[in-house]
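testing teh design pipeline on a random one, pls ignore if ur not involved
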């Protein structure tokens, strides 16, 4: 398997799905529609929808019902980045190597574009019921909503904002990482498992794998913020320190942070290999996420 070629093909497929669900930038509200497209179609890695689809395939899923969920999770991810970059939060003017949405369209339009993407995500997910009205779709919808909301990603963002510049416990820092980052990875992989009709035991195992992958991914992000450059990252390096963020590197240093990435990733890969199903591409994808250099 040529992993790079396979990844490029899957990324292109996600882009095509996004084009299907993103509205054209026209009409009196054209500006916000342009800002939405600008933020979503900015060359992201599409990791979350790819993880979702690969997990769906792992458990035997073969239907189109996964596509609205794939589009929606990328919209959720994109809106969270748009809002993260706002002056009231991280105040970053660059994202993915170009101006962030609020820097390109203004702060007000940045807020509205994020709001619109969040709403469009759930409008898109609801269209899955026109493809399949079974219990798996309903259960996946519920799980997706919880993991991306106040008990998941948004909840982590809230605590992250409230603790900036404050000394907090390692447990609370872990809570932030689990909710702000890992919850969206869990939403992706667990939604794929639920839609495919995986057993309760396999769904729980998938959640554990996704949790470890998400934490390892975030700790790697903490490391790269210190060791990377603005050119390689496509966003300002050193922004965690600038914004007084609580990170693994800040609390434990680079060496221990690297070790934690290794522990989490090895456990996730071991748990994945213990399942009664195989997806070699998914295994390689997880490795690429936690050992990336940008």
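output:
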């Amino acid at each position: 398997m040529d992993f790079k070629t396979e990844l490029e093909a899957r990324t292109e497929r996600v882009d095509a799905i996004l084009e299907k669900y993103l509205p054209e930038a026209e009409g009196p509200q054209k500006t916000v529609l342009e800002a939405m497209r600008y933020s979503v179609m900015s060359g992201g890695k599409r990791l979350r929808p790819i993880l979702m689809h690969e997990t769906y395939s792992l458990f035997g899923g073969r239907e189109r019902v996964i596509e609205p969920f794939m589009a929606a999770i990328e919209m959720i991810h994109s809106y969270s980045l748009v809002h993260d970059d706002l002056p009231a939060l991280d105040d970053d003017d660059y994202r993915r190597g170009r101006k962030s949405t609020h820097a390109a369209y203004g702060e007000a339009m940045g807020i509205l574009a994020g709001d619109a993407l969040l709403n469009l995500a759930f409008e898109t997910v609801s269209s899955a019921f026109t493809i399949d009205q079974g219990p798996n779709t309903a259960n996946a919808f519920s799980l997706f909503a919880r993991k991306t909301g106040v008990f998941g990603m948004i909840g982590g963002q809230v605590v992250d904002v409230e603790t900036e510049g404050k000394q907090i416990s390692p447990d609370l820092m872990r809570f932030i990482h689990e909710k702000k980052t890992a919850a969206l990875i869990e939403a992706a992989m667990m939604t794929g498992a639920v839609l495919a009709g995986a057993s309760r035991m396999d769904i729980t195992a998938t959640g554990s794998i996704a949790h470890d992958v998400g934490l390892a991914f975030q700790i790697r992000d903490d490391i790269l913020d210190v060791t990377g450059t603005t050119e390689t990252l496509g966003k300002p390096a050193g922004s965690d320190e600038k914004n007084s963020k609580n990170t693994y590197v800040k609390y434990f240093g680079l060496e221990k942070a690297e070790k934690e990435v290794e522990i989490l990733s090895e456990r996730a890969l071991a748990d994945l290999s213990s399942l009664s199903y195989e997806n070699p591409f998914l295994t390689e994808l997880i490795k690429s996420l936690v050992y990336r250099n940008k």
